[in-house]
Amino acid sequence: MMKQVMPLMKTLTFNVICSLMLSIEQGTDRDILVKFFEDTIRGILSVPLNLPFTRFNRSLKANAKVKSIIMDLIKEERAALKQNGTSPNQDLITCLLSWSGFWLKIHPSMELVFMIYIYIYKYINAEQKEIAKSRTYGEPVTWEDLMKMKYTWRVTTETLRITPPVLFL
Predict the structure, then answer these.
(1) Cβ contacts of residue 20 below 8 Å, gap of 6+?
(2) What is the DSSP secondary structure assignment for residue 19, as one 8-state letter?
(3) 16-54 as b/e: b if 16+ CB within 10 A
(4) pTM score > 0.85 for this model?
(5) pLDDT, mean of each 10-residue run, the chain (169 residues)
(6) Are 93 and 73 in contact (CB under 8 A)?
(7) Quick one: how far is CA 27 from the chain centroid?
(8) What Rg value do the Cα atoms of the chain yield, rounded?
């Protein structure tokens, strides 16, 4: 049963991300992105040997194509926002791009990364400040405090999932 559920969950997750974050609806664009993304994922825990016939090499090429597709999408969204032809609440990228000023000075390839980091930092910082308000200076954090750090926990587990501390786990 698990072999049937996992592919469906992966597909559902990818479809939600494409729809909500990137506004890529089902079709050939999404199918191409899925193929490149799957090739990228296959190479994450492969032997880092960059030769033409290795999985790692295919992963690097697919990763470059995924980045290129997303960067083209960001450029299109930015142009549409400048022409006021799209709603700033259309998807996550347009929402983040609509925060003008600061983003214009960042290199386009790093723009989305910075926007997401700032978004995540905002929530983690608020969560940590809330815990700090209930503690006196020097008082250690309790297990109950750790249980209140839902967003921090999610970011930590996702970071450990993407870059495990032990290779091949």
Answers:
(1) 91, 92
(2) I
(3) eebeebbbbeeeeebeebeebbebbeebeeeeeeeeeee
(4) no
(5) 71 79 78 85 80 88 87 80 70 70 54 73 86 83 85 83 64
(6) yes
(7) 21
(8) 20
